[in-house]
Amino acid sequence: MRETARPRETVRIRDLARRIEAATPAGRDRAVDGLRAVAILGVVLGHWLVTAIVADSGTLRAASPLLYQPGLTPVSWVFQTLAVFFLVGGQMGAKSYDGARARGVTYRRWLRARLARLFRPVAAVLTVWAVAAGALLGSGASLLTVHTLLKLVLSPLWFLLVYAALTAATPLVARLHPLWPLAVVLHVDLVRFGFDGPAWLGWINLAAGWLVPYCLGAAWGRGRLRGRTAGWVLLTGGAVVTAGLVLFGGYPAAMVGVPGAAISNLNPPTLAAVTFGLAQCGAALLLRGPLRRVLARPVVWAVVALVNLAAMTVFLWHQTAMMAVSVTTLRLAGPQTGLHTVPDGPGWVLARLCWLPVFAGAMLICWAAFHAYEAGRPRKGGGGVVRGGGPGAGGGSRIVREGRPGQQAQQARHVEQRSV
């Protein structure tokens, strides 16, 4: 029976991959989808690896293994992929706006459609956690515990607010050279750290810092940055400058926030975080060719397409999945290594790696419960389900969701018209 079941599952997977392949327009740049999938998975794995929830005297508090084990700092270099998010977002935003203008769609209508895709799933997260917070307080949980959980689940939402602001500014951003916002970041840090300026000044970088990769993405979407020269310049220049800032400028080596650290590279973004992001953008541009070749394989492309369909749900619920596992396990079995203990040694790291599949399973449950908010509702006369996907997702998600080879030509036209 098992031998029969396995071939059936294999046939189903291959059939799904073939349908997705047949329904994908020939002109779609799969490298963009591949980079977006890498970015979302980097964020998820980064949070799951460098965020610890420590059970301490009946309360839960947040901690980071980077504070106790500085040797793990390179983990933040690999999994802090927000610059790639904004690069892809700028590319898709510029293409979407240009396509909307060509079809006579007004700016207001274009922006309303894009923001609806961003914020519709957020309502579900806020509602669930409002109820959960009340239930936790009612069951006797401490204010510190509830604050810790809410902060972990809600703090990533800053990304959506910044992304929405940059999306709204796309018509202006598309004409802006990335050096201008980079200069703003440089001067803000110079005043903050060189002349002991006020700390609040750093929050200007929250917009200016992520505007740099967004502008690069807009240039990419407008047909620039086609060669490999730009990628190599960004990669080498960004890496060298970042190394100099860390070694000689006093910036921390970790590219994520570390509790207790005097300076955070991410909260708000510093010049080191922005130059590191430039290096990431350069690497992403250089990976376009290899990604296109790899994603030409139907099964690999199907995996990337499905990840993009679930991107927004994964982004919004991955912290909830981790916390659900942590809280449930604590109540049923007590404190567990790698889940509730101080992350101060290699044993914690090994145990946390073993917990990752459990987090992924909880994430699948969250996806099953809430992905409908990302998918949207069927459109009348549209012949299918409204496209899903995370920030920057486009009509290609819709075509994958239908997956009908017989309608490939018609769907391809829809995707090109609705390309984001």
Structure commentary:
The protein is mainly alpha-helical and about 425 residues long. It has helices at about 1-25, 30-50, 65-70, 75-80, 80-100, 105-140, 145-155, 160-170, 170-175, 180-195, 205-220, 230-250, 270-285, 290-295, 300-310, 310-335, 345-375, 395-400, 410-420; strands at about 50-55, 60-65. Strands 1-2 form a two-stranded antiparallel ribbon. Strand 1 (about 50-55) and strand 2 (about 60-65) form a beta hairpin. The termini are far apart.
Major sheet description: 2 strands, antiparallel
Q: Order of SSEs, N→C?
A: HHEEHHHHHHHHHHHHHHHHH
Shape: globular
What's the total number of strands? 2
What structural category do the secondary elements indicate? mainly alpha
List keywords for this structure.
disordered C terminus; 420 residues; two-stranded antiparallel ribbon; mainly alpha; 2 strands; 70% helix
Brief description of this entry?
This protein has 420 residues and is mainly α. Helix content is 70%, strand content 2%.
Blueprint (SSEs and pairs):
Elements: H1 2-23, H2 30-50, E1 52-56, E2 59-63, H3 65-68, H4 74-79, H5 82-102, H6 107-138, H7 143-154, H8 158-168, H9 170-173, H10 179-194, H11 205-221, H12 229-248, H13 271-286, H14 288-294, H15 298-309, H16 311-333, H17 346-375, H18 395-402, H19 408-418
